[in-house]
Amino acid sequence: MNYRKLRLNLVRWSFFVTFVSMTDIKDIPNFVAETDPLFSYIRKVANEFWLFYDPDIQELTYSIVPDTFYKRYCNGYFIVDRLVKYETSIEVQDTLKAFGLDHEKFWYLCLVIKDYVDGETIDTIIDKPTHREELLNFVSEIEKLKPRRWGDLYLTDGCGELTIKTSKHPYIIKDGQTLALIKIAIEEFLKRNQEQSFILDTAPVDFDNKTTLPEGYRLYLFDKYLSWFLKDLKANKSLISTKTDNNRVSIDKKLLISRMLFILGITDDEDYYDEFKEVKKEGKKRTITTKIDKLKNTLKNYKGVKVKTHNIYYW
To answer: Hey, what's the torsion of the CAs at 110, 43, 213, 196, to 10 degrees?
Structure first.
């Protein structure tokens, strides 16, 4: 029996009341995304991962993601047909209660994370290297010549060539010592500008250079942001059943994330929602129940992955 289908579509009592009502932020008068308590979870994650660089003061400031999300939500960019699944999911609501999480704040947090991840992965702009990365790549190329000081000279192994074309006749540098001096100048400049800066750590944007990343990247990024939010939370053990029946409350954080991936439609694979499945081994009459751990197994393929795209929704 698929307990997910049975339990997700029936509103009944578990450890807590399973049907929860939600506040629609469009119905709140004078809503301010930067201060309203309903967005407190969003602000926590946004100010950790998505700070805004203010070119006027040349510093990173509070994230503009909460305000941008609110405007996108009110302008109809979200179809919240999945909300019913969230509201009636006994498993998810019980887990939230066990961790002392507010179901409304958590819903909007998951919604904004999904939207941010979509902006990073679906029909999105491929990032070009930042100016800092370009300079570091240039230094790495000159390093291949193994420049070293010998008295008042710099010696190199072999020859390199730097070509600058600004007119019909390109300017070419082949002298190894000149290339070594350029490398030193760049390294000194980067050393003096180690902190993040708008000049060095931005890149030109090519709006025609777009791509859609595989689904696995969406799963990886959603997990990355939500895992950080959940990492320090402790469950209330008085609310947790130790029985291995269908009514026990799960405090598996990865399973909570996995279930939200399914509820939000980031994946349609039911294995991300189910905790266990029944497997019949070859030659055996009886089936055995095994733990799925679908998300954990998927994430093994994305360790250390870097997503180099420019978010099309949140600038």
So the answer is: -160
CB–CB of 106/253 below 8 Å?
Answer: no
Predicted pLDDT of residue 304: 85
Those residues whose C-beta lies under 8 Å from the C-beta of residue 44, and which sit 6 or more positions away, are: 229
In order of 59, 139, 180, 187, the CA distances from 192 in angstroms are 17, 16, 19, 9
CA dihedral 35, 40, 45, 50 (to 10 degrees): -10
User: Model's pTM, two decimal places?
Assistant: 0.76
Asked if residues 270 and 84 have their Cβ atoms less than 8 Å apart, the reply is no
Question: Which residues lie closer than 8 Å to 93 by C-beta, 6 or more apart?
Answer: 14, 16, 18, 20, 87, 103
40-49 and 103-121 helices cross at what angle (nearest 10)? 30
Amino acid 141 reads E
